[in-house]
Amino acid sequence: MSLSTALADLSAGQGALFRTLVTLGLLVGGHILVKIFAVIVRKTWMQRGEDLTKKAIQKRYDAVKNITYILDAVVIAAALLYLNTGLTTTLTEKLTSGLPDILSVLLIGILGILLVNFVTKFASGFLNRLGTRNYLREIGLSQNATRLLSLIVKGFLYLVVFQVVLEQLGIGNTFLDKAITASAYAAVFLVAGLAFWGFKDLARNMAAGLYLKNSRLVRPGEKVYLEEESGEIRDVDLFSTEVETDGGYRLLTQNSKIMDADLKFKDTQSDIETLEDVKRHFTAQDPSYCGPASAEMALSIFGYRYGQETIGEMCDTEVGVGTMPDDLIESIETLTDGEVKAAYVEYDKITDLADEFKIWFNDGALIIPNFAKPVLFPQADTAHYSLCVGVEGEDLLIVDPSTSTVSGGVYYADSSEMLEAMGEFEGRSRGYLVLAPEDTTAYWRINKGLIYADKSFYDEISKNMELQLRRILRQGRILKNVLPEDLQSYLDKWKKEEKVGRVWKPESKRKEGEEDGTTDSGE
Predict the structure, then answer these.
(1) Using DSSP, how many helices (H) and how many strands (E) does the chain show?
(2) Which residues neighbour 142 within 8 Å (Cβ) at sequence distance 6 or greater?
(3) Where are the alpha helices (DSSP H) in 214-337?
(4) What is the mean pLDDT of residues 9-30?
(5) Which of 312, 325, 324 is nearest to 285 (CA)?
(6) Measured between alpha carbons, how far apart are the two ends of the chain, in Å?
(7) Greater pLDDT, 496 or 306
(8) 223, 443 in Cβ contact below 8 A?
(9) What residue ranges define each of the domains in the chain, with the CATH number in brackets?
(10) Average pLDDT, stretch 212-218?
């Protein structure tokens, strides 16, 4: 062997040895730096704050531990990168050529173990935040059972890491490899079986939650009778439903139990089924009493008996002047002792009139539009109140208390024309009143101040209230018509005259000599 060949062999051996030593140096030095970092963080962050609870300290400790796992993984990855990128010049020395491969296998194994620990800890924390641990306790799984399930999952992941290491060593196609593969499949089937058995109630509960969250019955504000309890629905979550009982308690029950129970809901508009029912509640207004007359009809449908005279006196309604919306709201809530809530939505806060009306009706409310009558009836010259009892497509079903020859009775009005009629007239714009009886979602909305469809109209709205508003609007968008079933099948669309489709008109009770429209005055 020549001198040059000997020098080349020596150089090659020294290069491999040097690379190995540098790699070990990176590992040791990096691990020491990570430990120093962890100690500093514990001293400065975990001890800061005298009011920290034991739970908060444990969370910080877990966070620091996860960070050290990540940093150790970065150090190992850097060492692997150096080891396998050819930064040294030769790979020819036979005596030391196998050492980097062995070191690579060890590093891959360590990295895999770190990743398994990090992933399982992260998944466990995530499931705990979802409340899975509490739910597992509720369905009867002890802490030891859940711990065993966790160990089985972690053991399966360790088997996967072990198999990767064997592949790296080049002995993957062996009996041991097949045995590990078989055990991995067995572990998968075991975990799947345990998961199916342990989580079958959880899956059933989640499916029930998805159904209830999209149901038109189980909604916040609705009065519900559940077995021996009765109360108001406060919230519907993915796993549970919260009910505030009449006894002042908060009842939190699983959604699957809600689905299995016989629920009773309060029906607030059962009287309106046919056109005859609408006519039965019809009230012919006194002069300038269109507001109180509309309120009388709405309250009558809700089961209250207050005449327009009583309502008008409380509102200080004057002939030729009419009624202000705030006075009408105050009188309604006072007469019903707050059992009927009312709110006023101004013209400039309306987003989509037909959709908003559908949502309110679907939530159990009735609506009193306040509009300029000449837009719908060119012969009229006043502002006016009427009662809206339903929506069909883009048409509003109006019960007009007027007894003049110009309007009055029951008719369809196009929502876009009604919106135009709510615009500026005689120096100011108008809008609509919402009336909602107790134990309905509409009542709850008014009570919470969620009366607008666009969140930008609120000065301040919490994330929870914004989420509730989105749910309400999402349910309303799928509605095409909101009319009692029998009434909807009974009514047909008449040819429109004077921009309305008249369904029924009462006999005129105008006094001799009165002009058309003078009895309809209202503000």
Answers:
(1) 17, 14
(2) none
(3) 255-260, 275-281, 290-301, 308-315, 325-335
(4) 68
(5) 312
(6) 115
(7) 306
(8) no
(9) 3-204 (no CATH), 223-265 (2.30.30), 275-502 (3.90.70.30)
(10) 65
